[in-house]
Amino acid sequence: MAGSPAWLLLLALGLCCLGIQGQEYKMTARFSDSSITHPRLGQRLVLECLTTNDDSGVFWVRLDKDGTLHFIVFISSLPRATFEGNKKTSTRFEATKSRDFYQLVVKSFMPQDEGNYFCLMNSNRMLYFSPGQPAFFPVTTTAAPTTPAPTTQRGITEKDPCLKTPNPETIKEKELNFFCDIFIWVPLAGACLLLIAALAVTIRLCQQTRRRRCRCKR
């Protein structure tokens, strides 16, 4: 029984370790100003990471439109900030810890800062991610350019309603009528000419006959 306290201590440590390994941490990434839905160009944007464990520090990362993760900063619980390239400061970001929040500040929001922002924590060789906070510019719909109505000139681009494509049947009918006219009027014209010529001959013969009679009476 002398070893029972040692067994009890080992059992307590084992239960404690199991409790730590089975513990789940909740993390939330959000805008500091809840009224923000879309950041504006050049806006100072503040994001907060809320976690149930503030002893392990927090990483901030960004997932861009192409699906690539970008490390931004690690904020320790002391707090100390370590930016990309193991730098203590950044020209584009600020990072600090305030009470239960790990804040990330985008000094001037630009197109290259668009993406989904996550905070994550490494605890007991486990990674815990927050849901992503999207930060994108508002989608602007550009209206299609209105094409001015083309100016038309009569006889060039605008079709004259009076100009119609001739019907082939109409053309054939006109040709037939033309040939019929030729066959009718040409003989009539020839007959008229013969009548005129006969009339002229008759008149001339009558004149000669009268002259002869007149000469005989004398």
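Next protein, fold it too.
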Amino acid sequence: VAGSVAIFGALRRLALALPQPAAVRSRPGRGWRWRNLLVSFAHSVLAGLWALFSLWHSPELLSDIQDGYSVSGHLLVCFSSGYFIHDTLDIIFNYQSRSSWEYLVHHAMAISAFVSLIVTGRFLVAAVLLLLVEVSNIFLTVRMLLKMSNVPSPALYEANKYINLVMYFAFRLAPQAYLTWYFLRYVEVQGQGAFLTANLLLLDAMILMYFSRLLRSDFFPSLRKGSAGRDVDGEKFLID
């Protein structure tokens, strides 16, 4: 986990050296968000492909969500825990807590749940299934980067918009719905099982809220409230 924190710290420093689009450079408030999203994009690509590989390489894990184990899955949970810790520190130390408080709540839930899995070695398969969400996050992050950079090609944003919607269903809503059903039906509501079930239900509520925002923003803009005159600098990440 500590090694993962160090890796993402190095990626953040690398992002500092990368050129930024003119639309980002022209607004000082966007510089930190741009770098933060680049690091998030790197995590999504690595963790998403890693989760897919783990399940493809060891499909038998799906038959034992509670006690199934693989070294790859364990290391993936450690890797993502390091990212969530790094991102939390990045948000706090750059005084972005107020505008990004939803991320802090999400990260606190993820870190506490993942640490319990790392220590006990149980429910690691559930964590790998949840980390399939990072495949969806690749396109969600690309969406945000395109909005921030004011990309001149609307066709690129439009194409990503529909791909993002498909990936949201396939890699975010579907695994989340399956795990919620599994935990409510098969996992004892006591100890670690109760703690993880509570986390999962809270995450369900957050995901549905984010999904409704995504639909309003990209597909039903007329339903957005109070959007006139607001831009990306005045919005929370997950509202955008």
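About the second fold: The chain has one domain: 1-16+29-218.
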